[in-house]
From TrEMBL:
Natural source organism: Xibalbanus tulumensis
Membrane-spanning segments: 165-185
GO cellular component: endoplasmic reticulum membrane
Classification via InterPro entries: TRAP_beta
Alphabetized UniProt keyword annotations: Endoplasmic reticulum, Glycoprotein, Membrane, Signal, Transmembrane, Transmembrane helix
Top-level division of the source organism's lineage: Eukaryota
Annotated signal sequence range: 1-28
UniProt function note: TRAP proteins are part of a complex whose function is to bind calcium to the ER membrane and thereby regulate the retention of ER resident proteins.
Membrane topology, as annotated: Single-pass type I membrane protein
Protein name: Translocon-associated protein subunit beta
Length: 206
C-alpha cells in the first residue's frame, strides 16, 4: 500500500519543475510577442566641411512581432555651439511602428567649426506592446570619429578657382596681347604695301 500511495503522489521537486517550465514557456511567448527596434545612424557625406551641410539619416527597424508604440528618437551629439540644424529635428516622436516595417528620418546640420568630431550614437525609447508600461531603451550604431575640414582648405582643393583664372588671364593679357597687336600691325602694313605695288603695276601696263 505504501508503494501505491507513493506512486499516486507527485514529488514536490517535480511540481516545482513543472511550474517553472510553465512560467518559462509563458515568458518566452511573451518575449516573442513584443516589438524590438533596431536603430541605425548614417552620415551621407563624402567630405565633412566647415560651414557646409552634413546629411544624417536615421532608420528604425521593427524586427519584433507587434507594433512599437510611443517611439521617440533623440540625438544629443550635435550640440548648439558646434552645429546649426538646417532641416529636420534631432528629437522626433512617432505614434507607432508596425512589426516588420521601418521608419526613417533625415536631419541636415551645418558645422560651425573644423576639427575632429566624434559622431556618437542616437537613442530610441518605445513601449514594446499595447498596454505596456516599461519603456525600452536602445541605441544606434556609432558612425565614429570624423574630420571636419576647414572651408578654406576645401575651397583651395576643390573649388573651380574662377577668380584665380580671371586674375591669371588679366596678368598674361599684356604678354600675349602686345605681340599679337605688333604682328597684326606689321601684317596690315605689309598688305597695304603689297596692294600699292599691285596698283602701280596695273597703271604701268595700261
Amino acid at each position: 500500500s505504501d508503494d501505491v500511495g507513493s506512486t499516486g503522489k507527485m514529488h514536490p521537486l517535480l511540481v516545482v519543475g513543472f511550474l517553472m517550465a510553465i512560467v518559462t514557456v509563458g515568458h518566452t511567448d511573451e518575449e516573442e510577442s513584443v516589438a524590438r527596434l533596431l536603430l541605425s545612424k548614417q552620415i551621407h557625406n563624402k567630405y565633412l566641411v566647415e560651414g557646409m551641410d552634413i546629411v544624417v539619416k536615421y532608420t528604425l527597424y521593427n524586427v519584433g512581432d507587434t507594433a512599437a508604440n510611443s517611439v521617440q528618437l533623440v540625438d544629443n551629439s550635435f550640440f548648439a555651439e558646434g552645429f546649426d540644424v538646417i532641416s529636420g529635428h534631432l528629437k522626433v516622436k512617432l505614434d507607432r511602428i508596425p512589426p516588420g516595417s521601418n521608419a526613417s528620418h533625415v536631419v541636415v546640420v551645418r558645422p560651425k567649426m573644423f576639427g575632429y568630431f566624434n559622431f556618437t550614437s542616437a537613442e530610441v525609447t518605445y513601449l514594446p506592446a499595447e498596454g505596456a508600461t516599461d519603456v525600452q531603451v536602445g541605441f544606434s550604431s556609432e558612425p565614429g570619429e570624423g574630420a571636419i575640414i576647414a572651408f578654406r582648405d576645401y575651397d583651395r582643393k576643390f573649388s573651380p578657382h574662377v577668380l584665380d583664372w580671371a586674375a591669371f588671364a588679366v596678368m598674361t593679357l599684356p604678354s600675349l596681347g602686345i605681340p599679337f597687336l605688333l604682328w597684326y600691325y606689321s601684317k596690315s602694313k605689309y598688305e597695304a604695301i603689297l596692294s600699292g605695288k599691285k596698283e602701280r603695276t596695273k597703271d604701268k601696263d595700261m
